[in-house]
Amino acid sequence: MPLLVTDYSWTQTESTVYIHVPLKGAKAATVDIVSTDEYLKVHYPPYLFEAFLVEPVHDDRSSAKIGNGVAVITLPKRTNRIWEHLMIPTENKKEIRKRALLKYQEKLSSESKSKGEKQRTEKKYALETMMKLEKEERDSIQKMKDAERKRITAELDAWQLRRRQKAEEEQVKLHSQRENQNKPQAKTEKQEHRKTSEREFKKKKPDLPAPRTSGNIQVTFTPRVFPTALRESRVQEEEEWLYKQAEARRAVNANVEMLKDQKEENMNPDWLKDKGDKYFAIGDYLSAVNAYNLAIQLNRKMPALYSNRAACHLKLRNLHKAIEDSSQALDLLTPPVAANQAARARAHVRRGSAFCQLQLYAEGLQDFQAALKIDCHNEALQADTQKIRDIIQGTAVNPETQ
């Protein structure tokens, strides 16, 4: 049962109510505040404060501040007048609490839906923006291609025009030569002189070297790891991915080399579990942890390895590691069936013991109650569970739980 807070205080104005709830050393992260228009709850285990308000308030404008060991809740009134009492003297508190919690859950669900809708809208906008940028980039590339195509087409048309003009000139020249051949050739001194000059020029013309032979140059390029074109790729992300892949391969190779050095029996996780159990029995908890570690590297699906390693960490006062290993064992012990009842009970007790040694008694009580549901006739488990309840209620001193 939670402990009710009675040493609270409250003040008011015509428009606002201020409630001061002492936190009794609780951290801000562990304080749970629920506020509706007619109900207020401040819960920090094992303490609980509830207020069934006389008149409704604006829950959407309410606020809470936590600091200096006190929680200050500000509640704007719906009607501007002075209250004679803070809470209503009614016996129907259970119904009011149920109605208020349902309203609070609906509010949280509505906020979650609106938040999800906002995220979907933002993703849609980002996708549309990305598609727009990609379309602009494609249009720009297409414009460059069209301009290059036009330039090449213009050059080709100019080349074809020059070729046709040259062919026409050749035809005109050939036609004039044929006409000259049909006429009587009257050689004048001027023609003789021109031919003589041409022959002398040919004699003086130097010999030119022969044209160079043609050849092919082979060019090869290093293939890209990613098939995406470079202009469309994300080079930084690709390099980061390649680096992580290389690190993962090195880690796997290191584990393989370490396991190669082991003897043949050390490669059997069942044999290593038995070895760890023997070390635990004689009190050599560090050696037991090492044996369980090597067995887990060989088989990560055996819940007994995590549960037994949690027991070793519990003995070595590595409480957070004990909680982590017990939780991993419980995850593997699903679904809950009759065959794994004893293993689940042990994992709950070990995690609950670690919570209690960390003075997290509420969490520890939950694990011991879960173990008690599995093994309800265990008298020692019943006694430990009652001791934790007494600690939470302040009627007993801190016991050394198992």
What is the CATH class designation of the domain at 260-393?
Answer: Mainly Alpha
CATH superfamily of the domain at 260-393: Tetratricopeptide repeat domain
Taken as a percent bin, the fraction of beta residues is: 5-15%
Shape: elongated
Largest sheet: 4 strands, mixed
Oligomer type: single chain
With strands numbered from the N-terminus, the spatial order across the biggest sheet is: 1-6-5-4
How would you summarize the topology of this molecule?
Layout: E1 3-4, E2 9-12, E3 16-22, E4 32-35, E5 39-44, E6 47-52, E7 63-67, E8 70-76, H1 93-182, H2 189-204, H3 235-260, H4 269-281, H5 285-298, H6 303-315, H7 319-332, H8 341-357, H9 361-374, H10 379-393
Parallel strand pairs: 1-6
Antiparallel strand pairs: 2-3, 3-8, 4-5, 5-6, 7-8
Kindly describe this structure.
- Keywords: Cell projection, Cytoplasm, Neurogenesis, Nucleus, Repeat, TPR repeat.
- This is Dynein axonemal assembly factor 4.
- Residues 3-87 form the CS domain.
- With 402 residues, this protein is α+β, with helices and mostly antiparallel strands.
- Among the domains are: 3-89, Immunoglobulin-like (Sandwich); 260-393, Alpha Horseshoe (Serine Threonine Protein Phosphatase 5, Tetratricopeptide repeat).
- The protein has 10 helices and 8 strands.
- The chain has helices spanning 93-182, 189-204, 235-260, 269-281, 285-298, 303-315, 319-332, 341-357, 361-374, 379-393, and strands spanning 3-4, 9-12, 16-22, 32-35, 39-44, 47-52, 63-67, 70-76.
- Strands 1-6-5-4 form a 4-stranded mixed beta sheet, covered by helices on one side. Strands 2-3-8-7 form a 4-stranded antiparallel beta sheet, with no helix packed on it.
- Strand 7 (63-67) and strand 8 form a beta hairpin.
- The longest helix is centred in the middle third of the chain and has 90 residues, at 93-182.
- The model has no long low-confidence stretch (mean pLDDT 82).
